[in-house]
Amino acid sequence: MKEKLKKNITEALEKWGVSDVSFSVEATNDETHGEYATNVAMVSAKILKTNPKALASELVSELSENLPKEIEKVEVAGPGFINFFLKREYFSDTVSHILKEGEHYGRSVALKGQKVMVEYTDPNPFKEFHIGHLMSNTIGESIARLYEVQGAEVKRACYQGDVGLHVAKAIWGMQSVPERDENPLNSLSPEAQAQYLGHAYQLGSAAYEGGEKDAIEEINRKVYDRSDSEINKLYDWGRKVSLAYFDGQYKKLGTKFDFNFFESEMAKPGLEIVRKFLGRLFQESDGAIVFHAEKHNPKLHTRVYITSQGLPTYEAKELALHVAKARKYPADASIVITANEQDGVFAVGLEAFRQIDKEHASRVKHVSHGMLRLPTGKMSSRTGGVITADELIFSIVSKLKEKFSESERKADEVTLESVSIGAIKYSILRQSIGSDIIFDLEKSVSLEGDSGPYLQYAAVRAHSILEKAKAEGVRGSLTSTGNVEVRLPHEWQTRSFERLLSHFPEVVERAGAEFAPQYISTYLIEIAASFNNFYAQEKIVDKDDPHSPYKLALTKAFRTVMENGLWILGIKVPERM
RNA sequence: GCCCCCGUAGUUCAACGGAUAGAACGGACCCGUCCUAAGGGUUUGAUGUCAGUUCAAUUCUGGCCGGGGGCACCA
């Protein structure tokens, strides 16, 4: 439709001898402005030496001879916009279109044939899975899904730091915990094992600051070269239980990784790459090997790639990771999701990779997100450090239980889990991903308005209405040709609801193009509010109401769009709540 | 000191250079025999500041003020 209108306008302009004007035809925000609007008159008024409104009127009469058949009327408004209104059938057709498409509604083939890899979550074995990982996972999963609904082939990757100083710290801690031998650690749950490791890391971390630096660095070396059998034993056990614990987290959050990359696998190739370019790209400095990124881009800075002890840093391993990824899966786009505190490191790393392999580096795209913060004093961590994902989920589940018992509803564990995770995911994805999130536990649990549970509740409500209709034998109004019969009072209201539902594919497209899941969130809140309004005013299931079948069709269309949208956000819809 | 990000109702967030800056929470008021009121309706209230570019600026550019993050052997 947009393209058709654009073509018509271009042709009309050409008649007047105007050619290279750049104007837009866009979907409007406000239905009083019609469905599509163009700014062509305002843009070209200067060239034609006339005022925008007069030009718009002339253009309208020129255009009206040859308009697409779906157009009902054309108006000039505001400072010179031309608004195009569509016929009623266009909107009711979208309802039957949604019902026909079902879970495919909103999907497109815009990126068909594209191969995409998305790396996210990236927890570190031996450390806890904390709320930062929760954030990365939520955002990454959503971006992966945004690619998928646009037809791209997506592979999910997770890069886990199973070597490095943090591991050495944890091992130091494991060695110093006296109960280690008495504790039958292997019989503990993965969560408890992870807690033990987290505690060990805290001890090691404190020891590192408090005079055990050399001892811990010694452990670090031994982990890299696997020269100490006692340390190897602790390492292998810790790595194993950590990964098992992470798997449980991924399952809970609804992510399945296609590839797992490990820092331990990147150490050797990382060293090799740096040594290969030593003297050219990398320089020796104070015994370490560094990359002077500022020589290539004044905004960057120098970073160490190989320490004076001969160990590869994160940066060196990252170079190997880029290579390993490209080898494993030849992606057209390789997305990496990290916290924005790593923007500087990543920019330098990408510059280094660009110098080595310009072609592959150009496909790498870094998406960074803010921090998930909790108002201080609201929640404390058992391990005394960062707050783990489990601790956050647990506290939300407890609040939910209170809420459920207040309203005398029952909730099973599965529902509690999907609602609590939905609450967290929504509060992450409701705002632009670059900025920090102040996660207010109380507010997320108030479950009113702008929240994940509000969306889930709307979907559940629509579902239960459809169930009721089935039980009462009231059918939706799909005809044999698959079209809906439209019969409804309050036409303008219905129309704006239909109109809203018809926008979903455009919203998805824009969210995907801009790495901006919050467009989906905002949109879903709008349709949920619109549906709840509809629900409050209309009795949907009513045997005696001739409008009931179409109301049911609308309800089903709403439910479809809501489910498809929540899927993109990675939020599950419970059966009932 | 240098680099990056961010300043929008009392609060937490939206807004592809366009029309009347959109929600939610909070405040005030209203809706209970009816499909799940975890709901709905009415109302209150905001673009840090000074310039510039533009027919049009929350959006782009620059200065100032304020907040966050990063800047060599951690990741």
TrEMBL record:
Family: Belongs to the class-I aminoacyl-tRNA synthetase family.
Organism for this UniProt entry: Candidatus Taylorbacteria bacterium RIFCSPHIGHO2_02_FULL_46_13
One Gene Ontology MF term: ATP binding
Known EC number: 6.1.1.19
Domain Arginyl tRNA synthetase N-terminal: 3-86
Gene Ontology CC annotation, any one: cytoplasm
UniProt keywords, alphabetically: Aminoacyl-tRNA synthetase, ATP-binding, Ligase, Nucleotide-binding, Protein biosynthesis
Family matches, as InterPro entries: Arg-tRNA-ligase, Arg-tRNA-synth_N, Arg-tRNA-synth_N_sf, ArgRS_core, DALR_anticod-bd, Rossmann-like_a/b/a_fold, tRNAsynth_Ia_anticodon-bd
SUPFAM superfamilies in the cross-refs: Anticodon-binding domain of a subclass of class I aminoacyl-tRNA synthetases, Arginyl-tRNA synthetase (ArgRS), N-terminal 'additional' domain, Nucleotidylyl transferase
Transmembrane feature ranges: none
Family annotation (NCBIfam families): argS
Domain DALR anticodon binding: 455-577
Catalytic activity: tRNA(Arg) + L-arginine + ATP = L-arginyl-tRNA(Arg) + AMP + diphosphate
Pfam families: Arg_tRNA_synt_N, DALR_1, tRNA-synt_1d
The protein, known as: Arginine--tRNA ligase
GO biological process, one term: arginyl-tRNA aminoacylation
Domain of life: Bacteria
Keyword check for Hydrolase: no
